Amino acid sequence: MGLRVENLRVYYRTLRGYVRALEGVTFSVADGEIMGLAGESGCGKTTLGHSLIYLKPPMNYIEGQVFLDGQEVPIWDMKRMNEFRFRRISVIPQYAMNALNPTRKIGQLIADLLAAHGVDFKEILPELKRRLDLVQLSHEVLNMYPIELSGGMRQRAVMVISTLLNPSLLIADEITSALDVSTQKAVCEMIVEFRNRGFVRSTIFITHDISILYQIADTIAVMYAGQMAEKAPTEAILRSPRHPYTRMLIASLPQVGVRYREERLRGIPGAPPRLLDPPPGCRFQGRCPVAFERCVETPPFVEVEPGHFVACWREI
Amino acid sequence: MLALESVSKIYRVGVLGLGKLTAVSEVSFEIGEKEIVALIGESGSGKSTIGKMILRLIPPTSGTIRFEGKDIFSLKGKAVKEYYRKVQGVFQDPFASYNPIFKADRIFTMIREEFFPEISRPQWERKLEEALRAVGLNPPDVLGKYPHQLSGGQLQRFLIARALLLDIRLLVADEIISMLDASTRVDVLNLLAELRDRGLSILFITHDLSLGHYISDRSVVLYKGRIVEMGSTERIYSRPLHPYTEMLMASVPRIDQKWTHGEIRVERNAVGPSLGCVYYGRCPIAQEICARRVPPLIEVESGHQVACHMRT
Questions:
Q1: Considering chain B, what is the average pLDDT of its residues?
Q2: What's the pLDDT tens digit per position in A114-155?
Q3: Helix pair angle (B78-86, B106-115), 10° resolution
Q4: pTM, rounded to two decimals
Q5: CB of B137 within 8 Å of any CB in chain A?
Q6: Number of domains forming the structure of chain A
Q7: Both B102 and B148 in a single domain?
Q8: Does residue A154 fall inside a structural domain?
Q9: Is the confidence at residue A274, as pLDDT, over 90?
Q10: In Å, how far is B89's CA from the nearest CA of chain A?
Q11: Domain range for residue B93?
Q12: Could you give the 3-state DSSP secondary structure of residue B301?
């Protein structure tokens, strides 16, 4: 059944008015799908991830619905969300390495967390140990303080903890950005392995790095200034993108193999609009080389090919 | 133009500074005229420490750094200022380089007061405008603004323009791309390459191999403070010899090729921290000698040097 998000609108309340961080976001993630969520800083990808699990002020829920395995998720209700958090929707935060309480040993910390959700630590211990083996952490870490682990080890520990109760949805928020390339690869492969073994069903993998998504994601969703620009299977996004923003973004990526002397890459001129008072219609129109009159209306996010959604008047 | 000769840096760490941490160990390389040298390494490889030593921000524990033949740490008084006229740095976080309560263009005023007190105002303004245009900015759009009103890319260009106001010969660019968004980072990269073509030398410090490959002429690969491989960028990327460089090349995510699924390697303990090859703990082809002796950098072909017992 997976996850389905319909017309989600989340704004940040500021002294100068609402910052329209998510404006009518609609998409779904199937069972077993790893969906990569890409976009530049400030496009709303982290806001989207957070609003699915912990929608706290100054975030303001405006409208929209979220369904997980056919059941509505009350993301606007802090209290009722408690039964979803960790058990059914879990997150690996952006700074996972600093997410562990420094005064508790890893084992105690896990026991506390499980107790808060009414699960017996002893019962789950064998499974916990199996999973530590899987990510190549020794069982010793349960008796260690976070400071005794290296960054990569802490990251792996958090991954095991976050997925311990086999959540239906895992949100991984920029979990590879602070890691070295070799560790990065290991962490990404573990995310795939967790999915393959059924520890998690659907995964939303948030990152600004599209080349990582090409390695592990089944589908990629590209956001721009609070709106979904395009979502499609990974190969389609990279080889035949339809939205002008996706096309320009992919063309601007430096690759091993591309050299300045041989091939000049181009960036995207201009900057994203301010989300305090964005222009009406498509938010990319100001930087878009193919914009026309129609773009002052908001383009719908429509399926142009099976599984390939795009929000652009030129493609409809 | 700039030469590092067996430069080492040992930091004192821990309580009372009793512990020792070797950040950089016997590093020697040169940067020539009109050349971009990429200094590649993961976190803790000592790449930023090298950049800071070249900028005279920290002294090396041993070894010498020469700029145009002179030891930069022997410079005194006026000569120091002359050095900074020619060598400047730009760092990773553009937002941290500005004081948020002053307008961003204050950095230019400070350059004028410090280095060009004799220049007349209209002359200065022309010079400033030239420098801003050289980095692809439109002066009326960006002058007179506060740092928060400018984007990361614009602030980073400001800092490059600031360096260009001087008679700069060498720019130390320490991870200046990493904080920028994909759509603007390539413009800053192109800017560096254009500056090189106009006569500037650049030390491009990065952990991102694809960025290094895109613009650099030569690459120096560091691991735990030591050079493991260096040579022309083309050679190193097409035919890496050191197992560490090989591993890096295989791990870098690409959009034209998927990862081959290798075993995730667990660290092996080296005999002692100063004994043997720095990569011994993770090396797949290590032999017994690698734990005992530090491999020297050996030239395997013209301009391509590798420090590996097994591959030389």
A1: 89
A2: 999 999 999 999 999 999 999 889 999 999 999 888 878 888
A3: 140
A4: 0.87
A5: no
A6: 1
A7: yes
A8: no
A9: no
A10: 22
A11: 30-61+72-238
A12: strand
